């Protein structure tokens, strides 16, 4: 029913969403300072959305008779989203989020292309999630602009 590229991209996206949840949660807990509050609140909101993305991707994998990745299948890749040593280094977290969102956007665009007309359900899921990721990127670009000024 589906090709290997679609399955591989679904599994990558699923793992990336789970890793993002972990890093967003940790960063939302450890950040300190007045300027951190808005970023922390945004991360806290995004955690549930990223978890919902993972659930959608996992359900789609199940529908395609594939198993979503589990912890033994996991390989961490979000180096720039690791919590900073200095808990007031909000800019490093913003930059890490932007890197993660760029990667997610690239993955979902690849998934849309790979699914194409052959798998409109996967394509629709990827389009929906892509819109969310682009919205997150826009929000964090705004945070970055404030820091750059």
Brief rundown of the structure:
With 149 residues, this protein is mostly helical.
Q: What features would you describe in this structure?
A:
- It is a single chain.
- The chain has 149 residues and is mainly alpha-helical.
- It has a single domain (4-148), classed as Ferritin, core subunit, four-helix bundle (Ferritin, Up-down Bundle), CATH 1.20.1260.10.
- The protein contains four helices and no strands.
- It has helices spanning 4-30, 36-63, 90-115, 120-148.
- Helix 1 (4-30) packs antiparallel against helix 3 (90-115) and helix 2 (36-63) runs antiparallel to helix 4.
- The chain is elongated and about 50 Å long.
- The chain starts with a helix and ends with a helix.
Gyration radius from CA atoms, angstroms:
16 Å
> What is the H level of CATH, i.e. the homologous superfamily?
Ferritin, core subunit, four-helix bundle
Strand content: under 5%
Strand tally is: 0
Features:
Ferritin; single chain; 149 residues; mainly alpha; 4 helices
Helix-strand layout with pairing:
Elements: H1 4-30, H2 36-63, H3 90-115, H4 120-148
Helix pairs in contact: 1-2, 1-3, 2-4, 3-4
């Amino acid at each position: 029913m589906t090709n290997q590229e679609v399955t591989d991209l679904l599994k990558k996206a699923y793992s990336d969403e789970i890793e993002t949840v972990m890093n967003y949660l940790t960063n939302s807990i450890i950040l300190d300072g007045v300027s951190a509050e808005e970023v922390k609140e945004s991360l806290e909101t995004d955690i549930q959305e990223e978890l919902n993305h993972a659930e959608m991707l996992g359900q789609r994998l199940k529908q395609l008779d594939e198993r979503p990745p589990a912890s033994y299948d996991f390989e961490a890749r979000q180096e720039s989203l690791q919590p900073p040593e200095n808990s007031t280094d909000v800019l490093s977290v913003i930059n890490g989020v932007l890197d993660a969102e760029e990667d997610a956007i690239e993955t979902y665009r690849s998934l849309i292309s790979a699914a194409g007309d052959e798998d409109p359900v996967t394509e629709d899921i990827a389009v929906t999630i892509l819109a969310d990721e682009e919205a997150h990127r826009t929000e964090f670009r705004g945070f970055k602009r404030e820091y750059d000024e």
